[in-house]
Specification:
The chain is 44% helix and 26% strand. By secondary structure, the chain is an alpha+beta fold. Strands 1, 2, 3 and 4 form a four-stranded antiparallel beta sheet that branches.
């Protein structure tokens, strides 16, 4: 049997992206200026949000298809 489930959580994706990008930027050598760091974070967050838009509709809806016969769970593209 196959069925789809749509989950909604408006903050989780954006929080996770923000934390991951901030960590990556803080690990970047040579980015010491706060204004430069904030600009770099904003650009990277926007880029990652765009990529995640393939799977997250409006940044908060994620649909998965569960196949109980194959025992799999697959993210459904938007």
């Amino acid at each position: 049997m196959k069925f789809k489930v749509t989950m909604k959580d408006p903050d989780t994706l954006y929080d996770a992206i923000g934390e991951a990008v901030e960590q990556a930027v803080s690990d970047t050598i040579g980015v010491d200026d706060n204004d430069e760091r904030e600009a770099l974070i904003k650009v990277r967050v926007d880029k990652v949000k765009k990529i995640c838009g393939k799977w997250f509709e409006y940044g908060e809806y994620l649909t998965v298809e569960i196949d109980t016969d194959a025992e799999t769970c697959t993210v459904v593209p938007v």
